[in-house]
Amino acid sequence: MITSAAASLSALPLSLERVSIFQCSRRPRNLGRVIREGFEEIEIVLGGRGSYNLDGQLFPLEAGSMLWHRAGEKTIEHSDAQDPYRCLVIGFRVSGHSTTRQPHLSAWRNAAAAVSFAEELFAAFHRGDIDRQLLCHYAHISCAWQAHAAGPSRANPILPANLRRALQVIAKDFASDLDLPTVAQRAGLSLPHLHSLFRRHLDSTPSKVLEERRLRHARSLLAEGQDPIASIAHTCGFADAGSFCRAFKRRQGMTPGAYRQRYSAPLA
Description:
It is a single chain. By secondary structure, this protein is of the alpha+beta class. The protein has 2 domains: 4-150, Jelly Rolls, CATH 2.60.120; 161-263, Orthogonal Bundle (Arc Repressor Mutant, subunit A). The protein has helices at 4-9, 111-125, 132-150, 161-173, 180-187, 191-202, 206-224, 229-235, 241-252, 256-263; strands spanning 15-23, 39-47, 50-54, 57-61, 65-69, 78-79, 86-93, 105-107. The chain has a 5-stranded antiparallel beta sheet, with helices on one face. The protein has a 3-stranded antiparallel beta sheet with strand order 4-3-6, with no helix packed on it. Strand 3 and strand 4 (57-61) form a beta hairpin. Helix 7 (206-224) packs across helix 10 (256-263) and helix 8 (229-235) packs across helix 9 (241-252). The two termini are 40 Å apart.
């Protein structure tokens, strides 16, 4: 099965046609534009606020929000009159479309990184002495990666707000003795509703998401240092080394020690 990120690599754009910064006026609604045939356009919100109508539902936009438009689709129309949005506009010429599209609406996991990327890309495009084709591929793959990396995360604006709150709780406090009743309570949900939202929108369970967040941190610690396994288990929120090792082997197919041996930097 080919993922959307992998599909994007087999359907790179022909050329990078536009890199510009758009500052919306204080009108709550602008006319927007319909993307022409043979083009795709990405809008990355850099500041301010707006909203986007996707399949009849209005989604809020803020710094880091990213829209990936195909031909026939419309750019952002709704802005906050008190805090108008500002966005990077990236225009690609394309030859058809891959069968698997990038998410129409996603978000960079780090809004500051989105702003830095915008500044870099804008400056490079208007220098005039760079390899435009290389820059085209860099822009396209960078945005495809961000859409893929965000996935079903707390940054994803399409997820219900209370589910995003639950994901924020997990992301912030996974290293503590966090349990699911606490996640539900802090997200303003009952425990059954929490399970229902995770199943419906993430095709997963809260316990699996919490465990994976802990294991993600553990993998980094194993690859970058020599801390004892018991210390890593505690640092990542596991009750003890035994439960950590069992969870790790179940997910990775190897022990934490074997993972460290395979992926840590070789000793001189």
